[in-house]
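Record 1 of the preview.
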Amino acid sequence: MAPARSRTAGLTMDDLYATANAYASLNDPVRTLATMTGVHSGTDYSYSNLGYAALGQTLAKADGRDYATALRERVLAPLGMHHTTTRTTPGVPADAALPRGTAGVAAVPWTNPVWAAVGTGTWTTSSDLAAFLIATTRDDAPKSLTLTHRPRAKVSDFSAYDGQVGLGWHLWKANGTRISWHNGLTNGSRTFIAHTSDDRAVIVLANSTRTPVEKIGFRLLNLSIPEFDEEQSPPPRPPRAHRPALPSRIERTIMCGSVPQRSSEREPL
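->
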């Protein structure tokens, strides 16, 4: 989900974030679009979770399978992302890092199969997201992946960064560096993934709503983005020993929405 607010079936994103499992009550996004009034097509870009959900359902219908199955068979399995799953019923994977809200309070994961394209019920790992990044940045990447980085529209809210949007990627230029990124926030989990034109990349997963993953990610790329300079609460804990570090480069030899993480760590970061 982008930092800008958007409206989903009559609810603002602030409304959704304040509710335990607000997505569970939302109707089919395609039918919601069909019944909306006072909405007209245009050329101005605006981030929309409803749009992503409707796209996911439309693609699934064209594929002849439900979204979770189509995603697994057409994207996850071919890329070796075997630890990424999309749940169609409430609950969490056995090895999940349970989501936390303010001050470490346990949060209820969002679940709604027809809204899965925005990240509800989706769980992943940093290694799976690294596999996605490697696949999308390699020299012989499939055309279907390289096309996702082609600019489709300008984003006036971020003109200071020559802001544009591709297919699922926010495309910015910061401090002379081209960067493709996306972030996400569900109830109790936050994510950030990015790669740059000079072959650097970062993935940040947190099972805490209060962890500023965008700020952490951009800083790891040596980029200062004031729009994401939020305060971290609670204060960061001392670093743990033996925590593996992500490689600074991705070999030249890939997250609508948003995804919680799976790992063996069960405490909020």
